[in-house]
Amino acid sequence: MITGDRKPLEEIAAMVEGFERVLILGCGTCVTVCMAGGEREAEETALALRLRGRERGVSREIWYANVERQCDEEFLQEAVDHVARADVVVSLACGCGVQHMVTVFPDLIVYPGLNTTFMGVTEELGVWAERCLGCGDCVLERTGGVCPITRCSKSLLNGPCGGSADGACEVDKTIPCGWQLIIDRLEAIGQLQRLDEVLPPKDWSKSHSGGPRFRIREDVRGTDDVEEGAQ
Ligand code: SF4
Ligand code: SF4
Domain spans of the chain? Predict the structure, then answer.
């Protein structure tokens, strides 16, 4: 999932200063799971902004709504009536959702209510951890399913570095050395010999370093109906 943190209320309040009708729009997928930008957080944000306005004697319309996914036009259309009423929308989606909103509604002013952080997993209730940088050329089959790009602080493809000590990372001793995790995992699955393979220099042009990327499926492009089970 994509994770994020809600921006401080004062920052959001400053963005919407001077607007009469303010919609707070939540997103029902990733940012709901990481408790940052779902319906509940949209409601809380709208309430907090209303209270803040009342304390300052400012009267304006602030309400909230939620859609399943802001990165998908089909779901954004469900918010069309809310959007039509709003002078400004504070999107609690990740940065993809915000950008898709301004594409789908080109005349609309949309501001980000979240700081998007990373792609990760839920480790336990209230703890999310980064796991993938979307490098475009996955090497997990060679590293026991542990990502060297995100789990190693230096993103080393052939580790560990000389600073790894007692299983901890030299950059931050409170986190495990990513390469120690890889070694432990390879040992556990009987593939320690994988360490003898030297991973070649990575082609970073497949990552964002090569510019904005697109994923195109020519077989389904331009068709509305995709046969169930089609690859
Ligand atoms: S190797 Fe690349 S694609 Fe695979 S998990 Fe790591 S960052 Fe993501
Ligand atoms: S100690 Fe381990 S995780 Fe930290 S930078 Fe070195 S190899 Fe990477």
Answer: 2-118, 133-210
Stated as kind and residue range, the H or E segment containing 123 is: strand 114-124
Q: Is the CB of 9 under 6 A from ligand 1?
A: no
Q: Which residue's CA is the nearest one to ligand 2's atom 8?
A: 152
Render pLDDT for 53-78 as a digit per residue (tens, 0 to 9): 999 999 899 999 999 999 999 999 99
Neighbours of 224 (CB within 10 A): 5
> Candidates 151, 152, 173: which one to mutate for ligand 2, based on the most atoms within 8 Å of Cβ?
152
Superfamily of domain 2-118: Response regulator (3.40.50.2300)
Closest residue by CA, ligand 2 atom 2: 177
Q: What is the pLDDT of residues 190-229, one digit of tens each?
A: 999 999 999 999 999 999 989 999 999 999 998 865 554 5
Q: CB of 92 within 8 A of CB of 104?
A: no
